[in-house]
Structure formats: structure tokens, C-alpha cells
């Protein structure tokens, strides 16, 4: 255990990247689900596991840091044993949360391919109620939908300890939002239930991950008074938050509050003076995702065709030799430059004020990669069950953007809405070609997908030649 790596980071949503290759012959039934699940878990745990364990550890044993300096070697051995148990218990719990995200992935993916996913989710949820560590009374679908809407309108954000208490965070973590009734997962959970029961006696926050005792208490004291109290508490919380929000976020009733709450997951250095305009608040790529895309697209020269306030460009500057950041909006570009300065990378980015369509048609530059994160028409993109990437994107459809980008580079990456029509996403690869799609989940929720086109940036299929 390395206590020096303890972080008090405010950017702690867990980040899962489910990745696979897709071609026109994609066959759901022959998908290597087990391979995807294992590889994703392995990568996630390597990336974030140690930090998560340390965070939990220091919360459980705040005295550890001081004590360990003065304890005898025998006591040190006992601490070590305790750490090992802690690591084993918590890795199991995080695996459980991960498995919820994985189910959501299967469900989201099926939906975006237009496959029939209308399984009996009531039954599955009921099953999970019986299996999970929560003993919450089963609620009607309508009750759940209403509560989900209420909660998620403000609490999908997951990383501001001041504004979002642990119960809220855990609600987000512990409650799968949809279920891909895969029999093996259900069985898996059945098996795990017994293990949990055996191993869950010691931790002060065992219940944290998966129970909501407060809710139960509220239920005991009467649903009515509970929900009134909850509403009032939420209103107070929103008022407090809004008092700190910048002016450009104050309109639209409370629509922008959720973006403010997750400001540190957008930029870990937010409080060093990050600037965003209204559109960028809901368009900027969260830092963990931007970092991953930058790792994947590391190259000599990259064009960020829709730079906005710099969420992606800043991370590209850390992995690429030269970043050409284009945007049609000069004010956003100025903010991007300022924000890049906060990350110490402004000197590595060339900011170009231009319409990408014209830029692409006229430039002589031949970058290695073009990255596309165009506007999706604002947060209303979510209102469609399936987002049509040929008609819904701005300034032109996905195929046209792809064609233009391919005239500059054969490797192109596209950041697209989570409800994007996957058949269209795959079709962009061209006849007989494949693309790789990363579905990005922060905690158990899908944020968006990143599609990679071109041999230079596509990784081998999961489970094949890792
Ligand atoms: P969101 O759906 O508005 O947020 O955007 P969230 O919290 O998932 O919404 P909720 O209502 O489901 O809780 C999710 C992410 O998509 C944002 O963080 C942005 O990174 C990205 N994004 C959203 N929009 C509207 C755009 C857009 O127009 N263009 C680009 N490039 N990215 C966007
Ligand atoms: N990836 C960015 C967010 C991009 S949002 C980030 O992480 O910060 C989409 C951006 O596209 C907006 O900033 C908008 O000004 C820009 N845009 C819209 N039309 C454009 C066009 N024709 N050419 C270049 N940029 C455009």
C-alpha cells in the first residue's frame, strides 16, 4: 500500500470503457461478451483500482496515516492483514458495481442497434431486489420512474463532495439503471449474494455501496412526509448551488445545475479559473474521457475540428506533437486558450478560428488524425430514442463530416451521443471495413461513445490479440 498516492481528488467517478470492433456483419449472439467484460474490468482496475482502495481505506481508518509512523513491526503486520482484507472486500464490491455498468452496456448497445430489448425488466429488477444487498421494498415502475427523474435531474453528477453527499453518490453507483436480463449475469449475482453475506460483516460502509437505509426510514415514517422533506432538502440544496453558479448558467430554471455539480469531472482544475460559456457547459468532454481519447489518438499532428472550450484539445496536447484546434466561435477559442494555460499546454495548441467545412476544403495540412466532436443540437438530443447522426449533427451529417475529414487523414475519430444509431455509426466505416467503438461509462451511466475509423487507430478486437 502506498500512502503517498492518497488523493483527495474531486474527480472520482469510476470510468469504464467497453470497447469492441464492429463491421456490417456484427452478430450480437457471437459477441465475445465474457472477453469484453474481463478486459474492461482488468483495464479499469489497473487504472483506478489502487486509488479507489486507498480512498476507502483512509476514510475507514483516518488515524492510519499518523499511527503507521509509530507502530511496532508486529502492529504493522496487523495493519497489512487488515489492508489485504480491505482490498479483497472492496475489489468485490467494485466488481459488483462494474457488473451493473456492464449490464447497462449490453442493454444500451442492443437498443442502439434497434434490437429487441423489451425483456421483462420488472422481473429482472425484482430478482435483483432479492439478490442485492438492499432490502428496499419493491416499488412500482411509475414510482421508480418519477424518483429517477427527480434524482437524476440534479444528482447524476457525481464528484463534488460539497454538494453531493455520499448517499447520493452511492445511489448513483449502486443502482443499475437498466437491466440486460442475461441469465448468466443473474446467476452470477445469485452466486455473489452468498459471498457478500459471508464477507460483509466488518465494514462501516458495507451498506454504503448498495443500501439506502435513509430511504427505508423515510418509508417507515410515511411516504408523504418523507417525500416532502426530500423535496425541501433538494430545493435548499439547489438554492445553495445556484448562488455559486456563473451568470450564463442562471437561466432555464434549474436545467444547468447538474452541469455545475459535475464541474470537477469536466475539468479537475476547475477551481483554478476554468472558463466555459453556456453551450460548452453541456458540450465539453469530461476529463477522464478526453484523457482516454488522447491516449488512443497519440500522434504527431492532430486536428480537433470542433475545439469548443478545449476539453479535448488540452488532453491531446499531452499526447500529440502538435494540436490544431479549430472552432467557428472566437469566444470559445479564447476560453480554450485560457483553459489550456491552466493545464500548462497552451503553447502546444494552434487555435484556428474557422468553419471546419471551409478549413478542411482549403487546408494543405495533412494531419495524422482528425477528431470530430460536433454539436448535437443541445441537450435535447436525449429526447430521441435513437439519434440519427445523418440528420441530427451540425453543421452537416456524419457521412459528410467523415468524407471531409478523410480527405485530410485516413484515421478519424468521432465523439457521438450515447443514443446514436449504431447501424449508422458502423456504416461510416465504409463497405467491408470495421470501426472500433468505445462506450464510455462514468459510474453506471453511459456518457457518450467514441468511434474510431482507420487502421492506424483501431485496436485489435477484445479477446483476440490483446
Ligand atoms: P448530457 O446528456 O447533456 O449530460 O451530455 P448527462 O449528464 O449525461 O445528462 P443526463 O440528462 O442524462 O443526466 C453527456 C455528455 O455528452 C456531455 O458531458 C458532453 O461531453 C457530451 N455532449 C453533450 N452535448 C449536448 C454535446 C454536443 O452537442 N456536442 C458534443 N461534442 N458533445 C456533447
Ligand atoms: N470537444 C469540445 C466541445 C465541442 S462542442 C470540448 O471538449 O470542449 C462543439 C463545438 O463545435 C462548439 O464549440 C461550436 O462552436 C463548434 N462548431 C459548430 N459549428 C462549427 C463549424 N462549422 N466549424 C467549427 N466549429 C464549429
Order of strands across the biggest sheet?
Answer: 1-7-8-6-5-2-3-4
Strands, total number: 8
Uncertain residue ranges: 1-9, 120-223
Helical proportion, percent range: 40-55%
Tell me the name of the CATH homologous superfamily of the domain at 277-453. Answer: Vaccinia Virus protein VP39
What's the pLDDT, averaged over the residues?
A: 79
Structural class comes to alpha/beta
- Quote the distance from N terminus to C terminus: 28 Å
Q: Report the radius of gyration as a whole number of Å.
A: 23 Å
Architecture of the domain at 277-453, according to CATH?
Answer: 3-Layer(aba) Sandwich
Biggest pleated-sheet summary: 8 strands, mixed
Percentage beta strand: 5-15%
Q: Which geometry do the CA atoms define?
A: globular
Heteromolecules bound: 7-methyl-guanosine-5'-triphosphate, S-adenosyl-L-homocysteine
CATH topology value of the domain at 277-453:
Rossmann fold
CATH class of the domain at 277-453: Alpha Beta
* Distinct helical segment count: 19
The ordered string of helix (H) and strand (E) elements is: EHHHHHHHHHHHHHHEHEHEHEHEHEE
Please tell me about this protein's structure.
- This protein has 466 residues and is of the alpha/beta class.
- Among the domains are: 122 residues, no CATH class; 177 residues, 3-Layer(aba) Sandwich (Rossmann fold).
- The chain has 19 helices and eight strands.
- The protein has an eight-stranded mixed sheet with strand order 1-7-8-6-5-2-3-4.
- It is globular, with a radius of gyration of 23 Å.
- Keywords: Cytoplasm, Methyltransferase, Nucleus, Phosphoprotein, S-adenosyl-L-methionine, Transcription, Transcription regulation, Transferase.
- GO terms for molecular function: RNA cap trimethylguanosine synthase activity.
- This is Trimethylguanosine synthase.
